[in-house]
Specification:
The chain has 263 residues and is an alpha+beta fold. Helix content is 21%, strand content 46%. An 8-stranded mixed beta barrel has the order 1-2-3-4-5-6-7-16. Strands 8-9-10-11-12-13 form a 6-stranded mixed sheet.
Length: 263
């Protein structure tokens, strides 16, 4: 029997477990499911390796996740040293991203204010998707490692999104897929995310890549750069972005606890 050590971390209530025990890629999905069974509040699982020159984060499903990237950077600073009130810039290799990701970390009373440079969208396009006999034309923001569909409450119900998302992910051939319920007037976002490799379908308390995708979508519609704060079930995330540019995403991260489970 082997011990698996992990930390439970809160980036805007998108509760994330980061395991630092070396695990083979093929074993990650099953161990992620084990952690999520142990931690009912956990919405996603990643695996970190801080032993090399550049810290690395691999999500259980191989997707890209901005909240997990901020969590990994905060954990790296907490483990490697950051003074009270101090700042540090961390460069991470992250699954789903084709180049290193930079995170600025500031210690604030035991928690961490983080800003991550998120990759630019690959493209934004209208896609034809089917819901039973209905044919929908919906905007999709394709990001490295994940894509997000932008919808309103009038276009789709939550039950319809839950039933359709797995099939839509297969139809679009994406590594992971989100449905982002976006209210452009109230600036609210409700994220539903499916990751096939981990077989997880989750209403997330916040979604970093979905927030950036929403920002890029709104910037594309406005044909200009935008800076906005989106209210999500777990709190707020702030994004600065353009239609086809890198995004700067800011949020708050707290390290909740660390645990060990046997497998």
């Amino acid at each position: 029997m082997t011990a698996l050590h992990y930390y439970l971390i809160d980036p805007t209530k998108n509760i994330t477990a980061l395991a630092d025990t070396p695990i083979s890629p093929e074993s990650r999905p099953a161990l992620a499911a084990r952690i999520m069974n142990e931690e009912p509040s956990c919405e996603q699982v990643g695996f970190v390796d801080f032993s090399g020159k550049t810290p690395r984060l691999d999500m259980a499903g191989g997707e890209f996740c901005g909240n997990a990237a901020m969590s990994a950077a905060a954990l790296y600073c907490a483990n490697c040293g950051i003074p009270a009130g101090g700042t540090r810039r961390v460069t991470l290799d992250v699954s789903g991203a084709d180049k290193p990701v930079e995170v600025a970390v500031a210690e604030q009373n035991g928690a961490f204010a983080c800003t991550v440079a998120m990759p630019a969208p690959e493209r934004i396009s209208k896609e034809t998707l089917f819901l039973g006999n209905r044919q929908l034309s919906l905007p999709v923001v394709y990001c490295p490692g994940i894509a997000h569909i932008m919808v309103t409450e009038d276009e789709l119900t939550t039950a319809e999104a839950e039933s359709a998302l797995k099939g839509w992910c297969a139809a679009l051939a994406t590594q992971a897929l989100g449905v982002m319920f976006l209210d452009r007037d109230a600036l609210t976002l409700r994220p539903l995310v499916y990751v096939p490799a981990a077989d997880t379908l989750c209403w997330e308390s916040s979604c970093a890549s979905g927030t950036c995708a929403a920002g890029a979508y709104l910037a594309d519609r406005a044909e200009r750069d935008v800076a906005l704060t989106l209210s999500e079930p777990g709190g707020t995330l702030r994004v600065q972005t353009g239609p086809q540019s890198e995004s700067l995403l800011s949020g708050r991260v707290a390290i909740l606890k660390e645990r060990t489970v046997n497998y």
